[in-house]
User: What shape does this take?
Amino acid sequence: MFSLRLRVAVSEDEASARVQRLSKLVGLESKLDNRISTLVSGQLKLVSIAIGLVADPVVLLLDEPTTGLDSTAAQNVIEYIKGIANLGVTVVLTIHQPSQQVFAMMDDLILLETKGGFAFGGAVSDAETYFAMQGHPTGEKENPADVFLAALATPPTAKGAAETWAGVFAAEQAGLQKLQPSAGVGPSGSKVFHQPPSESSRLWMLCSKLAVHYWRVPGMFTYRSFGIILFGFFLGSLYFDTPNETNYLTEINGSIFNIVWVSMYLSMSSVPQQIDDMRDAQAGYAAGRHKIWTWCLAQFLVSIPYSLLGSFIFMLPMHWFPGLNDSFETFVYAVLLSTLLQMTMESITWQVAELVRNAMLTVIAGLMVLGQMMIFAGFFVSVEDMPRVLFWMAYLMPSKYALSGLYYNYLHGEDYAQPDGSIVTGDQLLDANFHITYGDDTWRKWADLAIVLAFLLAFRFQHYQLMVMSTGKLGVTLSEDTMDDLPAGAHTIELGPASTIQESTTSMRERQDTVFDRPGSAESGNGPRGSSPVSPKQRVTVMNNVAI
Assistant: This one.
């Protein structure tokens, strides 16, 4: 349902009816209410096929749909695929070493040599005749697929210039006409171009999907929330009931610093899930289900409530146990800032993951970035005391503004007892120990929070730019308008009625210098001996090669 609504603008009733039809077609009608994680490998293959059919495609391309399945499951999958072809969808699939029962369900066959040469292309029934004439007959009890693959593993017996199977086949097909590019048609005989939903509708659907996804999958926020809650209770208990005395300034300082550190550090627990989500986003974009900015915005919006909830529970013990400042506004500020820090570090790991595409390397790089943020936050060395060649780096770190805002948030308005019994105000401590001179300008701490928010948005935009750079070309697809604007020299290989595969001239010539019609088609009239015209129904075409 989700994949359908992202790709085709249909009503809820129509979407539900189409899902019911597809589930019945692939034999999964009884599994509609099951989670994907409960399905076996063969059922997962059928789910993938059903997802490919939701938009009523003219051609269905399948890459090794039987890989990893036992013989029974593989045969069941191919039987469902054959049923799909009988409904009017041209199916092109790659397969290695199919069983005799599976191979018998194929209509057309394309064989490629190890180096990509076009060794055969035509009806399966014609293939046996063709290879028999080349000295490789198929025995009564032999699997034709095994015979063909064994033949391609040896040099052809034909003499002369044709020293490869591609050369032999090219000689057999001499004089065929090149075909012109043509758009496919659907089962009804007309072009099929569905109107996609608006991007705002896709945004809402992505938000709904990700919200449920993150609730079910613990890798993104659940583990992080557990960790941040445990740290909150542990650190809150460690600094429990800290007195407002200058003798305890180290404890006060440590309690505030740990809000910054824990909020950012535990965000890296989500890196493995980020890698998986990144790949899912790329696949969705390549399939035309959404644009890059739509997914980035949806993921950002969905992460807000999860991060906010984790920060709220984290700050309950971290704020109230030490008792540094009992103001509710102080608590709200700390929760908001902790949320922004979580999301800021998450944005950084999104960027790193997009660059390195490896969970371990992303964690290592994230820890290096986090270390720099802690060093220049002003906790270990105040910004004013840093060497001149380095102090400017502190202003490039969101942690510096977060720590300054938290110091003011907790110390402003409080009084602290000194060992001699005198009283010093929180503002005096801020000035003397942390060089923070906000005074009564409480808006300054909100300005610090706004700066952290600006860092967050900037990092998110950088992540979007990186996704555009790395995956932007994956979403280029042919539409009704672009079918007429194909590059000069583009050709097609005709595999049956309403079935075309676009090939660029350059890539075609790397494998073969000619473009072949389907042997035995009504258009060519030049098929192998005894071939018959193409059936008006769509066909299952299997592509194979001997490259292991």
Observations:
- The chain has two domains: 57-191+529-545, 199-472.
- The longest strand covers residues 118-123.
- The chain has a mean pLDDT of 78.
- The chain has 19 helices and nine strands.
